[in-house]
Amino acid sequence: MNKAISAALLVLTLTIQLHAQAEFSPQAMLKPKITGPYTIPPNVDARAAYDTLGARAGFNMVYVPAFKEDTPIVLRIEAPTFFEAMNRLSEQTKTFWFPWDSKTIVLAPDTLQYHRDLEPQTLRTFYLGKDVPRDVLSSTVNALRARLQMRSVFQQEGANAIVVWDTAANVAAAERIIAEVEGQRLPLPTTTATAFPINNTLFLLISENGKVRRVVPSTQSHLENTLTGAVSVDIHSSARPIYEDLAARAGLNVIFDSQMRERPATRFHVESLDFINALDLLALQTGTFWQPMNDSTIYVMDDNQQNRRDRDRFIAKVIFLPETATTNDLNGTLNLMRTSLGFRGIFQDSRQKAIVIKDTPLRVFLAEKVVEDLHKQLGKSKSVLLTTESSIYAENGWILGNAAAARPKLEVKLRNETTVRLNKNTKAAFETLAELAGLQVTFDPRFVDSDAISFAATNVDILDALDLLAWQTRQFWQVVDQHTIRVVPDSQAARRELELTVQKTIVPADPTAAAGLLNILRTVFALRAVQTDEKNNIIIRDNPDNVAIAEKLVEILGKGAVQ
Predict the structure, then answer these.
(1) Whole-model pTM?
(2) Of 376, 382, 373, 377, which Cα lies nearest the Cα of 353?
(3) Residues in contact with 146: Cβ distance below 8 Å, sequence separation at least 6, in sequence order
(4) Helix crossing, 168-182 with 134-147: angle to 10°?
(5) How far apart are CA 366 and CA 163, in angstroms?
(6) Which of 124, 250, 306, 552 is deepest in the core (most CB within 10 A)?
(7) What is the distance between the alpha carbons of residues 306 and 17, in angstroms, rounded to a whole number?
(8) What are the φ/ψ torsions at residue 429 (nearest 5 degrees)?
(9) pLDDT digits 0-9 by tens, 1-40
(10) Cα–Cα distance between 63 and 49 in angstroms, integer?
(11) What is Dmax (Cα atoms) for the chain?
(12) Are 19 and 188 in contact (CB under 8 A)?
């Protein structure tokens, strides 16, 4: 066995460059319109050099905020191909680059942090023969770890499969090692591959039928066919005017977070992109992120850990393994997802052979694909959504937005959609919207007014406008009575004190399920006021939205155990 592995590695060493061109490699994804040659003269800055290469090859070039545009190019570069020119230039400028799609390249400082934050790593599952012994499976995995320094390699014994998550070159190398050790021909039986960065899932690529595409989050699906291939931008500006220009082209409102920093103007130049792609690349270049608030409005804020935690959209699902899956299959899948892929808001229900997950839409998509890939030989997996994708559900469990729940409780005079354009301080802005709605507004004693803010929304329901203004100014609002609303600073303490709560007793169909359900509600959903009584009923006191999630979870998983 050791000799076979050594032989495979020797062959690999001699042929790694040939097999490194996996589907997510630059050579596979990018097709320059001019083969070569490519020349960069000395004494130009880095931005001009890369823009020159991109223009000649026909690619968009997008730069993260930390990219040093004025880095001088000291040495003349002459290369026969685009890829060689890019590699030589990146060596001089200490930059790393990767293909975002078939039209676009992203450039960032060549640091470990940026590699971990942005560089796509390929995830692929390789299926070995049914008769491959377990010790051979283990020794193959050990060989990959030892010789390729792979950390994210995992064996799934139930499927006789090896899951690898690494660079495109290393995944191609791993496939060759596995084939040599197992005596199989290339290519190995495998899944469709995905690719995403180590530290988070800002984006997710998937390869299907020889083509690579970016996965659109389910919460953005209504925008997927907007301005398809029709967005071309060449603007030297700060982020806000460019977002406003893109939103206007799509017929959308755009709201900016009141705490969003103004950044120096920079050139944003892309050609022939879809609307979502253009927004994502603008966000990447300006250090911001965006999300849809509703069908007609997007919201933009600084991209930092606090905003991601408090304001990124999360969804929750129950993912059922195929009925023939075993507890070992479930444990192995959860182990892979936690240790190799870094999932946190995830829990198993052994009784129902199910996984409960709360995460961003892209991470949930990835979890569903992992389950499907690992167990497709056993049958089809299925998923049930616990949250509503029309609600803004945050990681901390807050439902951000009150209009839908408040509408039947208020006597609103303005029933038609309206257009609002304000440049006022926060207090005056809320007073103006309340007056348009025919409502009174009061302010919590903790409320602190701000300087003038710009707020603009076209063809918007007046209560939705209140939600948008609350989001922009970091407030939340409540119904006091049918004629009055209250505005409160949006903090955890204020929500716990003032947010409407309801108490409900939920009865599982199978009382023995209560302990596991209680654990899921406390760990995945971080619910504190939840317990069981002597009859194994679940008693919960929380906001109506979290109570509704608990009811749906109990309905789905509170049945008799799967045999």
Answers:
(1) 0.90
(2) 382
(3) none
(4) 140
(5) 14
(6) 124
(7) 41
(8) -65, -45
(9) 454 444 444 444 434 333 335 789 999 999 999 999 999 9
(10) 13
(11) 82
(12) no
Q: What is the pLDDT of residue 402?
A: 81
Task: Report the DSSP pairing between strands 60-63 and 104-109.
Answer: parallel
Paired tokens of 119: 């560089």
Strands 484-489 and 475-481: antiparallel
| Residue 130 one-letter amino acid | K
Q: Which two tokens stand for residue 117?
A: 């934050």
Q: Which residue has the tokens 């001089």?
A: 92
Residue 443 CB partners (closer than 8 Å, separation 6+): 427, 430, 486, 487
Are the beta carbons of 413 and 437 closer than 8 angstroms? yes
For residue 400, what pLDDT is reported?
A: 65
Positions in the chain whose pLDDT score sits under 50: 1, 3-20, 563
Using one digit for the tens of pLDDT, what is the confidence trace for 423-443?
999 999 999 999 999 999 999
195 closest CA partner among 179, 177, 172: 172
> For residues 526 and 520, what is the distance between their CA atoms, to the nearest angstrom?
9
Of 418, 502, 533, the closest CA to residue 468 belongs to: 418
Provide the pLDDT for residue 370. Answer: 93
Asked if residues 62 and 234 have their Cβ atoms less than 8 Å apart, the reply is no
Q: Which phi and psi (to 5°) does residue 360 adopt?
A: -70, 155
> What count of other Cβ atoms lies within 10 Å of the Cβ of residue 539?
14
Q: In whole angstroms, give the CA distance from residue 544 to residue 406.
A: 12
Q: What length is written for the chain?
A: 563
